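User
Please review the sequence:
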Amino acid sequence: MGFKRLFGIGDPDEAIEVDTNILGPVFPGGNVEGEVFLRGGARDTPIQGIYLNFTVQCTSYNGEERDYEFESSVADPSYFTLRKGEEQRLTFSERLSWEVPVSELGGRALGVVLSVKSSLRRDWNDDGTEMDNDLLHISALPLHEAVLDAFVEEGYHCDSANVIDSYVPNMEQHWGFYQNFYLTNRSAGPGQPEQLEVVFHMNAVGALVHVRRAVPSVRDWDSKPPGRRFPAAHHEVGHVDWRPQVRKALDELALLDDL
């Protein structure tokens, strides 16, 4: 751990150093906890609050990239004066939605960019000065791992994932995005798609797993090929084999392609 950046907050003499750290592993539906370390500059600096904004990089229907803020938090304490040269340690904790995308599967990066952006406000009229921007790593849940392992048994391995700035039709969603996992079978037989898109519509009970033939260039849900879905519950991990549901979905996708 070390102070990483020097930022001027207004007058250069008020410049402070900041370092934001996430503590422990982070999962969808769990808490994200961390600390913000501050070191005062050449003058005392009044601080109204340190705000943490959690974002994910999304791709829109036309291919443009944008940051989508899906959660925020305030470090504790607020309303204090950072004295000249003083060091302060602030803490934060926020519960994440089950719909939060994951950036790692089995310890391997998926290409999804999540960030935590720290900003400082000195008073209520201050919109905030961004001080620190760090990558946020969110690990896949056991349910993700177990279902995707069932696809591996059928020859489909997860290569990457991305996040689409759109809704899944007729699904209850808290955030306006969903995550696609891209699975490839390089030895797919006749009638089998070489690449799949798998979407986990996640909640506290489990997930509705959507699977369809992949067309990465098409981002509008209704314009994509027809798909199939099946439910999977968190408490079933370690007790249920999802290979039959996966095989059924693959067989039905092959029939749809023949229509």
The longest helix spans residues 243-258.
